[in-house]
Amino acid sequence: MKKSITAFLLLILTLISVVLCGCEAHSDDDKKTTQIFAMDTVIDITAYGEKAQKAIDEAAKVINNLDKLFSVTNEKSDVYKLNNAKGELLLLNSDTYSLLTIAREIYYLTNQNFDITIYPVMKLWGFTTDSYKVPSQDEIEAELEKVNCSNVFFLDKDIACLEYGAQIDLGGIAKGYAADKAAQAMKDAGIEYGIITLGGNVRTVGTKPSGEDFTVGIQDPESENYFAVINTGEGSVITSGAYQRNFTENGKTYHHIIDPRTGYPSDSDAVSVTIIGKDGTVCDALSTAVFIGGSEYAYSLREKYDEFEYVILTKDNKVIASKELNRKLSLEDGYNFELIYK
User: For the chain, which terminus, N or C, has the lower number of CB atoms within 10 Å?
Assistant: First the structure.
């Protein structure tokens, strides 16, 4: 459901402020960082502490293993096998099964705004291959018949199948899940704190000895600068936007975040949606769901599920944020956006 390599490289700029002094100061030897390519994006992993190198090695291993499970193109992946099993039951890795069950729960939580079975429509538009085209209404309607997350059928533990021609893409939720798993691996390895960036997904790990928050920037869709910064503790900061992957045909621009009800790119008031919360898997999926639903939807969703905060940049240059972010969110100099807490 997400994003080409180039789009990811431009997606989000992160600021990680580590201002430690006195006995809490770190030497360069305390910081380790590595960069890998997985899940169709460049991933940076940074850790602090005596066991930092071990921690980032373990995190990289976790992410690479999950990438092999969730890929839509790798013929050995669970997702590829499910998509080509023609309705047969398959025994899945426990991580795949767990992520499928979470995805279906979020499907119902979001009133179907988030739907991993949108994959046939994504293929139709060319967003899975970068061979873009505007499909006909008849083509869209034919593929929409396959889009329904209730077509993901579960039988006992780790056994599942796809019914009625359904196919899935976990791209809209897998990075959040992988970041959570990698963060746990880093903590188990004994780091003090760290950060993982997977394109538009930022996962902070642990707590700074100074007690300071992490600082994460949100990219301006019109440039590579960031228009706002968020101070946050341990958790996820995940951004989705129309600028991440799109194409223009006959003077009209079409983006990759498809509304599962219409089969067309979402037309809400959102240009960029950032979700902040403890559970990166949920935050990843909600960033798509809220982008499709828009700012009013975000408010109503949070009324029934309050485990996340949001920052939405709208088409009319308003920044609408959940009221709990007051004093944690600030606009950067030069941006005259109207900031509204709701």
Answer: C
Looking only at the bridges linking them, the beta strands covering 318-321 and 338-341 are parallel
CA–CA distances in Å: residue 39 to residues 28, 243, 258: 29, 19, 20
219-255 pLDDT, tens per residue?
A: 999 888 999 999 999 999 999 998 778 899 999 999 9
pLDDT in tens, 159-217: 999 999 999 999 999 999 999 999 999 999 999 999 999 988 999 999 998 999 999 99
Angle between helices 94-109 and 52-70 (to 10 degrees): 70
DSSP assignments along 166-204, one per residue: -----TTTHHHHHHHHHHHHHHHHT-SEEEEEETTEEEE
How many Å apart are CA 3 and CA 6, to the nearest integer? 8
**What sections of 45-136 are H helices per DSSP?**
52-70, 78-83, 94-109, 119-125
Look up tokens 């969730």; give the residue.
Answer: 70
Q: Output the CA torsion sign for 75, 80, 84, 86.
A: positive
Helix and strand numbers (H, E) in the chain are 9, 17
- pTM for the whole thing? 0.90
Of the candidates 198, 142, 149, the residue with the CA atom closest to the CA atom of residue 169: 149
Nearest Cα to Cα of residue 56 among 190, 208, 216: 190
CA 36 to chain centre: 17
Measured CA distances, 216 to 116, 130, 219, 272 (Å): 28, 30, 10, 15
Q: What angle do CA 4, 6, 12 make, to 5 degrees?
A: 95
Q: Which among 1, 62, 3 is positioned nearest to 243, based on CA atoms?
A: 3
Sign for the CA dihedral angle at 179, 226, 132, 42 comes to negative
CA angle 130, 135, 136 (to 5 degrees): 175
